[in-house]
Write a structure and sequence with these properties.
- This protein is α+β, with helices and mostly antiparallel strands.
- 31% of the residues lie in helices and 26% in strands.
- A four-stranded mixed sheet has the order 21-22-1-23, with helices on one face. A four-stranded mixed sheet has the order 2-14-16-15. It has a four-stranded mixed sheet with strand order 4-5-3-13, with helices on one face.
- The longest helix has 14 residues.
- It is globular.
- It binds uridine-diphosphate-N-acetylglucosamine.
- Uridine-diphosphate-N-acetylglucosamine (UD1) binds next to helix 1, helix 5 and helix 6.
C-alpha cells in the first residue's frame, strides 16, 4: 500500500491539464453495453475506478482494448450477472444495471460498495426501473431486475436529498430501449448526465432535456456503435483550483470548462482570489487576504458535495469563521478529524462544520478515508509546516489521475512511498 509524503510550504505556479471526467466516463463506459457494435471513447482517465469498470465489462463478455486515453469496447455477446468481487469495490458499478436491462431484459448485481460516505441507497434507481415495468428483488446482498418488456413511463427521481445522478443515468439508459416515451422529472442536472445523454444520442437514442429537471426519452428499437470524447473533470479542476488557492501564486488549468465550475469559482472569488476564465481555461491568482465563507452543498448547479472536503481544507487556514453544510451527504466529514490532527479548529454539528481559521497547519501522519477526503488532506499538506504523511492513498488513485505528478509539475514536493 502506497503512502504519500507532502513537503509543505512550496509555492505552486504554472499550467495543469485537466483529465477526462471520471463521473462521465464511468456511465459512458457502462452505456457501451447497450449495443453489439464497437464504441470508441476518448479521454478516459487512468484511474482505478475506471479499471474496475473495464474489468466488469470484460467479465460480462465485452472485448475491451485500451491505448492511453482511448478505450474501445465491443459488447457483442454478454452475460447479465456482474461479478461480486469487482462490483463491491465501486459504487458506480450500479450503473451497468440500466444498460443490461435495456438490452437483455435482466440483470443481477451485488449491492454496491464504494466511498465510505454514509448510507448510499439505490432505492431511486430501483423505483425508476419498476416504473418502466421491471420486477425488482433484493436478496442476500444482490439486486435482481427482470424486465422483459420495458414500457415508457413518467417517473420522478426526487429523493430526500435531491435527485440522483447515477439513478438518472441508469433510468435514462434503460428507457433508451423501452417501448414509448419516458419522462424523468426531478432529473439530476449535472454536466456528466448531459455528457452521457450526448453519447447515447450519438448511439441513436432520442433524448431531450438532459441538463434540465425534465428529461424526455423516446425509446428506440436498437442502438449502434459511436465515438465520443469525455468532458473535462470539473471536480479535478476544482481540486487544483483549491490547491492554487492554498499554496499558489498563479496557476492556470487547461482543458477545464469554466461554465461547469461556476459554483466553485464564485465562492473562491468571494473568498478574495482573483480568477480569469476563457473558453477552456481558468487561472487563479492567490493574492491579498482571504475571507471566510458560508457554503452549502446542493445538487448541480449548486456547490458540489465532491468539493466540500477540499474547500474545508482551504477554510481551516482562512482567518474568521466559515460554516460548511453538506446537504447531499450529511455524513461526509471524515476529513475533519484528520484536519484537526494537523491543528485545524473545526466543530462538527450534524451535517455542518464550523471552521475557525488558524494561521497555519502542522504536518502530521493522517489517514485517507475516502476519495475527496484524501484530496483535502493532500491540499492541507501543501501549506502545512513540515512533512504530512498520508496513508491509504489508494482512495486518491480511485479518482485523480497522477495528482502527485501534476502537483509536482507546478512546484509541489510530493513523494510516493511503497510501504
Ligand atoms: C454521484 C457521483 C458522486 C457525487 C454524487 C453527488 C458518480 C460516479 N458519482 O454519485 O461523486 O458525490 O453523485 O453529486 O457520478 N440517494 C437516495 N436514493 C438513491 C440514490 C441516491 O436517497 O437511490 C441519495 C444519496 O444518498 C445522496 C443523494 O441522493 O444523499 C445524491 O446521491 P446520488 O446523486 O445518487 O449520488 P451518486 O449518483 O451515487
Amino acid at each position: 500500500m502506497d503512502k504519500i509524503l507532502v513537503h509543505g510550504g512550496r509555492k505552486l505556479a504554472g499550467r495543469v491539464r485537466i483529465s477526462g471526467s471520471k463521473n462521465s466516463a464511468l456511465p459512458i463506459l457502462a452505456a457501451t453495453l447497450l449495443t453489439k457494435e464497437p464504441c470508441v471513447i476518448h479521454r478516459v482517465p487512468d484511474l482505478s475506478d475506471i479499471h474496475y469498470m473495464l474489468t466488469i465489462l470484460s467479465e460480462l463478455g465485452a472485448e475491451v482494448e485500451r491505448a492511453s486515453g482511448t478505450v474501445r469496447v465491443r459488447a457483442e455477446n454478454i452475460t447479465t450477472d456482474a461479478p461480486y468481487e469487482i462490483v463491491r469495490k465501486m459504487r458506480a458499478s450500479v450503473c451497468i444495471l440500466g444498460p443490461l436491462i435495456g438490452r437483455e431484459g435482466e440483470a443481477s448485481v451485488s449491492l454496491p460498495g464504494g466511498c465510505v460516505i454514509g448510507d448510499r441507497p439505490i432505492d431511486l434507481h430501483l423505483k425508476g426501473f419498476e416504473a418502466l415495468g421491471a420486477a425488482v428483488s433484493v436478496k442476500s446482498g444482490n439486486v435482481r431486475v427482470l424486465a422483459p418488456h420495458l414500457k415508457g413511463t413518467n417517473v420522478s427521481l426526487r429523493g430526500k436529498f435531491g435527485s440522483t445522478v447515477l439513478g438518472t443515468d441508469n433510468v435514462m439508459m434503460a428507457a433508451a430501449l423501452a417501448d414509448g416515451i419516458t419522462i424523468i422529472d426531478s432529473a439530476a442536472e449535472e454536466p456528466e448526465v448531459v455528457d452521457l445523454a450526448n453519447f447515447l444520442n450519438k448511439m441513436g437514442a432520442k433524448i431531450e432535456g438532459a441538463g434540465s429537471r425534465r428529461i424526455v426519452i423516446e425509446g428506440v428499437k436498437e442502438l449502434h456503435g459511436a465515438e465520443h470524447e469525455v468532458i473535462p473533470d470539473r471536480i479535478e479542476a476544482g481540486t487544483f483550483l483549491v490547491a492554487a488557492a492554498i499554496a499558489g501564486v498563479n496557476v492556470t488549468l487547461t482543458r477545464a470548462f469554466p461554465e461547469h465550475l461556476k459554483a466553485v469559482l464564485d465562492p473562491l472569488g468571494q473568498a478574495g482570489f482573483h480568477i480569469e476564465t476563457s473558453a477552456d481555461q481558468v487561472t487563479l491568482k492567490a493574492n491579498g487576504s482571504r475571507k471566510p465563507l458560508r457554503l452549502d452543498t446542493e445538487p448541480y448547479p449548486g456547490f458540489p458535495t465532491d468539493m466540500q472536503a477540499q474547500m474545508c481544507a482551504l477554510l481551516t487556514m482562512t482567518d474568521g469563521i466559515s460554516v460548511v453544510t453538506d446537504n447531499v451527504f450529511p455524513q461526509r466529514f471524515m476529513h475533519v478529524a484528520e484536519l484537526k490532527r494537523m491543528g485545524a479548529n473545526i466543530e462538527l454539528n450534524g451535517g455542518t462544520a464550523i471552521i475557525h481559521g488558524v494561521p497555519k497547519l502542522e504536518a502530521a501522519p493522517v489517514m485517507a478515508s475516502d476519495l475527496r477526503a484524501s484530496a483535502a488532506l493532500l491540499l492541507a499538506g501543501l501549506a502545512a509546516d513540515g512533512v504530512t504523511e498520508i496513508n491509504r492513498v489508494y482512495h486518491i488513485d480511485r479518482g485523480y489521475e497522477r495528482i502527485d505528478d501534476k502537483l509536482n509539475d507546478i512546484g509541489a514536493q510530493i513523494e510516493r512511498v511503497k510501504v
